[in-house]
Amino acid sequence: MASETSHAVWVLPATRAEFSLFWKNQMIALGPRPLGDLRELPAEQESFRTHALTTFADVSINWLKQYADRCFNFAITVKLGDHIVVATANETCFLVGSIAGEYLFRPPELSPYEHARVVNRLDRVYEHRIGAEIASLFRSVNEFTNLKDNSRQIREAIERLYR
Asked: By the 8 A CB rule, do 99 and 84 touch?
């Protein structure tokens, strides 16, 4: 069985409204650009990019590629048990939990966030419990991302929260 430290750490920046929505519903989500049900696409990053490029004409190609990559990571790369940190700029409170469900599609007429994942144990955590350096790193993230470079230090800080 894999150890707790084998799980990736993902950070999802959020507005205050999103932060509250995620806390209340014990879930995370991406949006608002509609791409449809991502499960219908081949599980390849290039397929997601091609789909985004053919779906939208009103934004830059670089932005679309980045958005497609975020959607690919959210739907395909993120694994059950991976850690998630929801961060809001200039706040001292974070939501920390683990991915508990597979990718879910929610039609745009039902939610502004088409792409969702259920989260286990999404707890409020304050900066003093994880340290100022790691808290600052979480706040500096401006898109859904995997914190590979500092993952050991970050995983250890997150795991301390659950001891």
From this structure: yes
Instruction: Give the chain's count of helices (H) and strands (E).
Output: 6, 7
Tell me: the pLDDT tens digits for 9-49? 899 988 888 888 888 888 898 876 678 899 999 999 999 99
What is the pTM (predicted TM-score) of this model? 0.83
What are φ and ψ of residue 12, in 5° steps? -120, 110
Beta strands in the chain (DSSP E): 9-13, 27-30, 83-87, 93-99, 104-105, 115-126, 145-146
Confidence at residue 73, expressed as pLDDT on a 0 to 100 scale:
93
Q: Which domains does the chain possess?
A: 4-31+80-161 (3.10.590.10)
